[in-house]
Amino acid sequence: MIRKYSAIIVLFIAVLAGASCGNAVSPAALKHAAEGQRLYELMQYDDAIKEYNEAVNIQPSFALAYLGIGRCLAESGKFDEALKQYKTALDLDPKNDEIMYEIARAYIEKGLGDEGLLMLDRAEDRNGDNPKLFLYRGIYYYNSMEYASAIEEFMKAAKEDSGSAEPYIELSYLYTNAKNPSYQDGEKAVEYALKAVDLAPDSLKALDTLAHAYFFAGRYDLAEKTAELALEKSPGNPVIKESLMRFRSTVKGSADEHNLKGAELLDAGDYNAAAEEFKMAVEIDPKFADGYYNLGKVYSQIKDYDQALASYKKAIELEPDSPRYHYNMAIVYGLKGMSADSEREYLAAISLDPYYDKAHNNLGALYVKTDKLNEALAEFDKAFEINPRSDYKNNSDMVRKMMDERGLTPKPVTSDKGKSQY
Predict the structure, then answer these.
(1) pTM surpassing 0.90?
(2) Residue 238: inside a domain, yes or no?
(3) Could you tell me which of 185, 187, 171 has the C-alpha nearest to residue 138?
(4) How far apart are CA 137 and CA 139, in angstroms?
(5) 23: β partners
(6) What is residue 23's predicted lDDT score, i.e. its pLDDT?
């Protein structure tokens, strides 16, 4: 889903009364600007720009027509061009706070967060009551992947302007597009999108947001129906048509197919997309242990260890005899500093597969951290015995040196099918 630049053009009362920057607005220019606004709201940005340009050609001092052009360009991701239009508008109408807020957002969307925040501060000094102050700060935090702060700002914007759909559109977008899978939540995305549609039932953008939320939540039929409704409001709209084609061509497929696709994405480092595939796998087959296991790997990569543990526990609950599930769970416990739990899971993995050299080696490293050098040496030696081509011998040599420096003599360690003897 392409990010939508959600501000809706408002032709100010002064303009509707026939004035712009103290000058009378030509009825012909005003007519083109009104048509530009209509097309903007239908997400037909190229046609909207043509209408705004007609308005500017008729009346070059028409600041709000430049503002409209800027917003259409921003919707298309052309932020450099949008900023030129906004700055022209601000030169013509330097007291217009709305233009300043849009400049701030364009900077933020372009990736120039510091410049955007400075412009927001400037706009706040002149008019701090504008809910867009919170809305655009939320977008700044979203782009910085500070999702908790973004949600807080969006909720402030919703509170300040209880009749606006924009904060709910942004919240829905966050829950479908966050790069941290911990914040991906299809049901919340649908909830907020429905709120946006409830507040703005004629808003094409709200409908489009809802369609994508349904799709993300795996409710493909509703995604298709909602996109069809949006297309009825804006026939031939290329953005909606592209989304609808995607919805119609999507087939759930098998859990294995999604799991394999997720594994490819995980290897490529695309954790957001990988998590989506694994979630679809377990949605299709709630007893698909490998899907939960791979979700755990994604959460481990982004250092969300609590979610990783929850996923590994679910995988083990479904398939308790998988040594790799226990092994990966042991790693996460170790990262959380939970040594006893980590030891237990490594021993479980070794009990299930006595020749699991990585488990022996990692358990040895855990014992070094907990100052159980004799036990560590036994695990490193075992790992090297299983895999003599590895560098595990270096670990054994290191522990022998540590023990020698302390005057300790290695002693045989006995084990009983993976149960801890220490």
Answers:
(1) no
(2) yes
(3) 171
(4) 5
(5) 20
(6) 61
